[in-house]
Amino acid sequence: MKQAIGNGFLGTSLALVAAAAMTIAATPAQARERGAAAKSEHVRSVQRSRGADGLVDSTRTNRRGGTTTVDRYRDSAGNVDATITGPKGGVATVDRSRGADGLVDKTVTGPKGGVTTVDRSRGADGAVDKVTVGPAGATRAVDRVRNADGTVSKTVTTTPPPAN
């Protein structure tokens, strides 16, 4: 090997660098073991229980110990609404209601007071369309079309919030 390189010092230093790299680098199996050990240290959990109203409530604990609770309940019209309490104490509410067209619409009030509305409507072809308006005024319209062969195509149009 020294003769092929021509310089004995260069050949020896390359051999040392290669040996050092092999001792530092881990095999893929060792890397997987270290990764699995690191991932097992973070515990997340979801506890579900059936509340007194018969709906499933949940408590989620994230890997840092923060807890999010979801309390589902039926409103006076029989729709399932929810109150979500986040790990920092913020409360979001989900209010569902039936529109005049019979489809379920939704209003979500976020923990900072922002309101997002979702309005579903049935098109002439029977497909369900949806318009979402975010807290800043951005809109997202999903137009679904039922094709002659029974498949459904959709077109999504997003409009940014108005400039202030």
General description of the model:
By secondary structure, the protein is α+β, with helices and mostly antiparallel strands. It is 21% helix and 43% strand. It has a ten-stranded antiparallel beta sheet, with no helix packed on it. The chain is extended, with a radius of gyration of 29 Å.
What keyword list fits this structure?
alpha+beta; ten-stranded antiparallel β-sheet; 164 residues; single chain
How are the secondary structure elements laid out?
Elements: H1 2-5, H2 8-24, H3 28-40, E1 45-50, E2 56-61, E3 67-74, E4 80-85, E5 91-98, E6 104-109, E7 115-122, E8 128-133, E9 139-146, E10 152-159
Antiparallel strand pairs: 1-2, 2-3, 3-4, 4-5, 5-6, 6-7, 7-8, 8-9, 9-10
In short:
The chain is an alpha+beta fold and 164 residues long. Helices cover 21% and strands 43% of the residues.
Following the backbone from N to C, one meets helices and strands in this order, namely: HHHEEEEEEEEEE
Strand order of the largest sheet: 1-2-3-4-5-6-7-8-9-10
Q: Whole-number radius of gyration?
A: 29 Å
How far the N terminus sits from the C terminus, by CA atoms, comes to 72 Å
Q: So how many helices?
A: 3
- The number of distinct β-strands equals 10
Indicate the percent of residues in helices.
10-25%
Low-confidence stretches: 1-5
Percent of residues in β-strands: 35-45%
Based on secondary structure, the structural category is: alpha+beta
